């Protein structure tokens, strides 16, 4: 048994806490003691070993059977690839074909699923065994699973693909365990902790919350991402009901609550000691607005914890110490309109076993003029073995992340992605700030804006903003976006394109795919 499997097995067998799963049909929480989850996991492990599989796929909603399959795969000494189900308006048959092809490409031979996804996959499962989780991950158990296999890879984690084609990071059992232990130590997760999550398990942050709860023998209240999407304010009710001490979400969730939560009542959020913001660029104003809006429910602003991580490092790279609160670094930005101040969230220091540095040797001229900005590089015990089909990586070597940022005494600051830097009128600007400002205009959907540069190699590079719009007066909104961006960012958009809500392409984890929009616009202009 691998070090990861052994640690999870020991934690679940000895835990006096439980895993609570939200049943979407009844809207009730179903409670399962961790030892019961362990028994279900052993049944999954038996099935995998009998199938002779070394790489396993998992897809579906987060039922108890689904969640038990995760440690069960590790017990069996197999690598686990979790992929998302079909999204709204997607062609179900095409989704099944694409998902199976992706699994085949990384060596998956057994897939666990349930419900509608199960039937869709079985219709096209040539060369792949598709098993029903309900039949396999039951709680009946009379013997102890005898682990006979070890593995070099525990997690086959898809990368976000926001700036290119998604790849699959190979995470070893030791790297995964190092990351989980780094998180549990930094956040102080133990048997008195209560975690609440609706994050997708196929995303590294959602998987980490689930496994950190398991390893720390904490209570975990797990809802589905669909349940959050259908009612974002339900998240606050779950925090209230569970008396959660820790939760995590991407920036957009905090923006929604802060912007539209004024009518909420009857909540108690005073138990929250760690409110992690990760997976997306942190909007300092939106995050602070969430904190201020929730203060009347006893929310402690010092629980705010903006963090930095990536799939290539299992999940976390830097996270703040508990009760640090939102730390902001104000920088001077020089535009044609003069100097202005921009606020960036400070994302804490590396967890145990990880190191971070900023490589300033390569030129990366940016709008941030009074900080030493460069490409962020990482190394350490949480680092992946490498991408599937690529050369192996040594965790002792520095890995370029593609993120631009700088270091402060309080931690790292991430400014944006190197590939997404926009060069217009001799200036380099990050899209995040342009998108944030455009999202403040009436009718423009906040968090649904993409800013890109086109024709950077020509004599006339252009800034184009594409935004989802749900207002009534497009011309007025378009003029307002141009005026606001020009005055606050010092760059005049060449065009503002409005599209229907939901039209902008996103990754499986919800990140906007800027480069896909860029390629589409550049192709249309030829």
From TrEMBL:
Residues 27-387 form the AMP-dependent synthetase/ligase domain. Keywords: Ligase. Pfam families: AMP-binding. Coiled coil: none annotated. It comes from the Bacteria. One of its GO terms (biological process) is fatty acid biosynthetic process. GO terms for cellular component: plasma membrane. One of its GO terms (molecular function) is ligase activity. Belongs to the ATP-dependent AMP-binding enzyme family. This is Long-chain fatty acid--CoA ligase.
